[in-house]
Amino acid sequence: MGTYAVTGSASGMGAAVVARLVAEGHTVIGVDREDGDVVADLSTAAGRRTAAREVLDRAGGVLDGAVLAAGLGPAPGRDRARLIAEVNYLGVVELLDAWRPALAAAERAKVVVFSSNSTTTMPMVPRRAVRALLDRDVPKALATLRIFGSMAPSFAYGASKIAVSQWVRREAVTRDWAGAGIRLNALAPGAIRTPLLEQQLATPAEARRIKAFPVPIGGFGDPGQLAAWVVFMLSDAADFLCGSVVFVDGGSDAWFRAEDWPRAVPARRMRRYVARMKEFRALNR
Ligand code: NAD
């Protein structure tokens, strides 16, 4: 039986993951802002440091896995875009920076980060905001989103999930992660019936937008089913899964982007492709 850290453990998909892991006999260290084994506000640097440290103390320095589910959805509010950037992006990468040695100590550890299908189905998210988040510069990311006015939280949400997914793919394949025996992957849900979605549905304009969004199989996803995907991605079955973003979204991504991926590397990207090939060979000589 393993020891797992789960952020966002008090509600929705995080809580559903905790229930499954506990039912399987694992030890879970839940992190949440009010109701968790570790109580910490991931929207502040101090809260992230507390969460990182207390989890490591409780785990005794060895973690078999981690699930990063804490997150905020797009909702109106002056400070909302900042909170989204801090919780959804820094609340993942800073914790994983701190937990990586403990995950490496477990030898076959698995990490699942909650992304979203908004990464590929939400248009016009500025690349500059994504780049600023990858540089961990939240004020710069927020500055690029100011032009969106009251829609800034929606674009902050899209940017935070694109950035965290790119971070996962970039890091997963490196010596620090793959080379240390840690499997790092992301799960990208569509609209799932959790308190986060219910909050969005409570605003009539948002509810209309969500209900009008194309979902080929119709309706909303179930948190228990998404938790089953997470637990699968934490299992030995995921030993060969590395840097993947798994979409479980009722078909919305496929509806919009069937031809976008998979797709052959175009001629204009061949230089970069060959460079990556050489880089890999040099690293593995
Ligand atoms: P939820 O609101 O039910 O749960 C999120 C949890 O995160 C809550 O327990 C909340 O207290 C915690 N949290 C929020 N801010 C925090 C903070 N500052 N410090 C510590 N904890 C904090 O949401 P959910 O729908 O279960 O979402 C889980 C993840 O899935 C999120 O990352 C979300 O962005 C993502 N997601 C959700 C949907 C959906 O439709 N529900 C779709 C795609 C992605």
Structure write-up:
With 285 residues, the chain is of the alpha/beta class. The chain has 12 helices and 7 strands. The chain has a 7-stranded parallel sheet, sandwiched between helices. The radius of gyration is 19 Å and the shape is globular. It binds nicotinamide-adenine-dinucleotide (NAD). The site of nicotinamide-adenine-dinucleotide (NAD) has 26 residues, from helix 1 and helix 8.
Report the helical percentage.
Answer: 40-55%
Q: Return the average pLDDT rounded to an integer.
A: 97
- The unreliable regions are none
Cα shape: globular
How far apart lie the N and C ends? 36 Å
Q: What is the string of SSEs from the N terminus onward?
A: EHEEHEHEHHHHEHHHEHH
Can you summarize the main beta sheet?
A: 7 strands, parallel
Number of alpha- plus pi-helical segments: 12
Number of strands: 7
Strand order of the largest sheet: 3-2-1-4-5-6-7
Cα radius of gyration in angstroms: 19 Å
Strand content: 5-15%
* Unique bound compounds: nicotinamide-adenine-dinucleotide
Class by SSE composition: alpha/beta
